[in-house]
């Protein structure tokens, strides 16, 4: 049994609404900077899908979380990974992962696009192995601790506090009683948002806050004190992602759980946060870690009695499905992220939709990731520099 072909599909999809709010406009450049987050964002939904074919006719699909310039991931896979993969047994995935990781290790590429590309290949190999064995991925991971996956609505992407409150109440009416606010606009404004949402949703709702690493240690400590009064379940990314020591100090100052990890791609990057007791809830993203590495990270977290809440932002079908399978298989799972606008786009590329209702993802039961990619639809959105 051998891998015979690897294809990459860098995609740019125009959504109804820009991620985190705003209207899509073809007259503007794809990329823009959000000063409040100090990050580049795209006005389109961008990703890179990977299709790996085997000589028995089976295929597996993977995806890298590639919200900007997904063609970079495609180039890495095509030029660096394909020579390592062709002719290999897909069940040698651990060996193949090590070879892909090692291929640029001495050049310092142990994060970023290189590992995003590795993650896409890893997910595709798990999908392929599942399809060959006619088993869902969660069974290959050792079984499912849960039959469906609890989730929280992420972002509430509306321009005003009143509109965010209205949207939160709408989702609560649909059975989603957990929300995360994407803020980081200042301690006073963030606390005003949180307390308003708490008043609207009531005492039993779960509320989380993503601060997008916008605060100093003293500001984050002040914010956390107010969040504790509002019974916020976790504070995500309060400080710069490189500041391990600062997170450790902050964790000692507050009873609010500290969550982080969307910027980290390996157990090596998570290890200092864990060992220095700088985090309560780890948030690896399967589109940046792959399934194999996410399971390693979760096992490491489990030895310190820490929870894992996989990050899930603009990843589409394979990313979402892989996240659901991993979430089912984790003994120390906390909760999974749910991005409604992204979910709609993701399902537009699938022959049968993934399901998330009443605050829970439905666990796919078919072989592999349990999804069927509509390849013709994928080809309609493929990126080209022509």
From TrEMBL:
SMART domains on file: MR_MLE
Which InterPro entries is this protein grouped with?
DgoD-like, Enolase-like_C_sf, Enolase-like_N, Enolase_C-like, Mandel_Rmase/mucon_lact_enz_CS, Mandelate_racemase_C, Mandelate_racemase_N_dom
Superkingdom field? Bacteria
Which Gene Ontology BP annotations are present?
A: amino acid catabolic process
**Official protein name in the record:** Galactonate dehydratase
| Record key words, sorted | Lyase
What GO molecular function annotations does the UniProt record carry, in alphabetical order?
lyase activity
Q: Which SUPFAM superfamilies match?
A: Enolase C-terminal domain-like, Enolase N-terminal domain-like
Source organism: Biostraticola tofi
Domain Mandelate racemase/muconate lactonizing enzyme C-terminal per the UniProt entry, residue ranges: 161-257
Q: Does the keyword Cell inner membrane apply?
A: no
